[in-house]
């Protein structure tokens, strides 16, 4: 009897050793698998293998690891994109500020170090004032642009007559158009309405009109027409100015972009960018068609409801 208990105890002891060995082996494999998975995530490995199809504890945990990995990967990619965008903005701003500052310094040095006639002196002072105005406009545009990108600008669209929008926008460019003896034609049904924020949408339309005035010669013509298109109301600005090359259509809506042939004309290249961002905030959009030498047509689409 005692021998039977002895052998039974021995068997149970050996069995417990085997179970402990198998358990230790499983835990080692489980730990190695998880550590390997974590190491791959930390190093940013792109082809990590998750054993999600297996009904094991390791697989269930790896499902959570995959979810965590996807979140971290998305955040990392967004961080890289944000950093690249910030570097691009800083580079653009630096370039935009450097040019007028260099010009102001050059003109000031000439006035300080050389004897110039009164007529020449006034000419240099006018050039300095032009560069100062350009810097002032640039700073205002950058403030608006930064406010727009960090979400500080909030729009409150509501259904209202389109006529109010056009009246508000035209007020901002009327004097400039008059100085160039330009014809301004408005075609708008007074009963037409759309859903928009008056303050910011008027600024967006004014930016488009301002470009039309700047890039159209004296005694040119600008036409504003409004069409109802079901879900949208289209406000179309047509000019008979210099026109835009088709290859530059996507570029003109980028911040600080200006076509090479218009560098001598006043402007900083953010008007259309801001206009587009304002429209996006209201579920609207903008497009352009143009033929070089024949003018351009900018169309602003605002939701009907």
Number of helices: 6
Structural class: alpha+beta
Give the strand content. 15-25%
Low-confidence blocks of residues: none
Rg calculated over all Cα atoms: 33 Å
Q: State mean pLDDT (0 to 100 scale).
A: 79
- Could you tell me the number of beta strands? 7
Strands side by side in the biggest sheet: 2-4-5-7-6
Distance between the termini: 94 Å
Assembly type of the chains comes to single chain
Helix/strand order = HHHEHEEHEEHEE
Largest sheet, in brief, is: 5 strands, mixed
Helix content: 55-70%
Approximate shape: elongated
Write the layout of secondary structure elements.
Blueprint (H helix, E strand, L loop, with lengths): L1 H42 L13 H57 L4 H32 L8 E4 H18 L3 E5 L5 E4 L1 H17 L6 E9 L2 E8 L31 H10 L4 E7 L3 E9 L2
Parallel strand pairs: 2-4
Antiparallel strand pairs: 1-3, 4-5, 5-7, 6-7
Can you give keywords for this protein?
single chain, 305 residues, 15% strand, two-stranded antiparallel ribbon, alpha+beta, 5-stranded mixed sheet
Structure description:
- The protein is α+β, with helices and mostly antiparallel strands and 305 residues long.
- It has helices at 2-43, 57-113, 118-149, 162-179, 198-214, 271-280, and strands spanning 158-161, 183-187, 193-196, 221-229, 232-239, 285-291, 295-303.
- Strands 2-4-5-7-6 form a 5-stranded mixed beta sheet, with helices on one face. It has a two-stranded antiparallel ribbon with strand order 1-3.
- The termini are far apart.
- The relative contact order is 0.09.
